[in-house]
Amino acid sequence: MQPTSVPMAEPVESERCDAARNRALLLDAAALLVAERGADAVTMDAVAARAGVGKGTVFRRFGSRSGLMHALLDHTESELQNAFLFGAPPLGPGADPIDRLVAFGRARLSMVEVQGDVLRAVENSPELRFGGPARQVSLTHVLTLLRESGTVGDLPLLAHSLLAPLEASLVLHQVRDLGMPIERIADAWEDLARRVTST
């Protein structure tokens, strides 16, 4: 009697590739909807329709609208994280820590300008606003740069304080309601960062 053949791992790998492709398809559909209508108008139904899948697929993948928005933010955050962890200076390694801190703030503000509605939607979720992985990575990065620059004081609190003016809800209010240009906000943030690190 011939031994039963053992299935190869290819179907599992193919399934993983399909799952990753489907996830990217859903996130791309969500990003297009955000660009067209704003984050507040994006629903699980709309994302499913745009991606050409059933609503259940979206819920299975992300759990809730808040989960979808968080995944979309992580998707867009990965480029910023790669830039400050591995990219070219001054944002990436190799530059003076204060110059890197300034570059980080400016890059974050540019991202808020483009992805502000998504960031605001995530910030409005209490469990994700301050405890989400993306914020934790940013907080650790800022704290590391403060230490490397020789800044004195309560560094964890200073790191939180430097991130606060970069929050999407505040920046969107400044830009949309107060009419402040993003360049003015970035210049003011740089001034704040340089003052904090000059001690």
TrEMBL record:
Q: Which Pfam families match?
A: TetR_N
Matching entries from PROSITE patterns are given as:
HTH_TETR_2
Q: Which UniProt keywords apply?
A: DNA-binding
Determine the domain of life of the protein's source.
Bacteria
Domain (HTH tetR-type): give its ranges. Answer: 20-80
Quote the InterPro entries the UniProt record gives. Answer: Homeodomain-like_sf, HTH-type_TetR-like_transc_reg, HTH_TetR
List the protein's name. HTH tetR-type domain-containing protein
UniProt lineage: Bacteria, Bacillati, Actinomycetota, Actinomycetes, Mycobacteriales
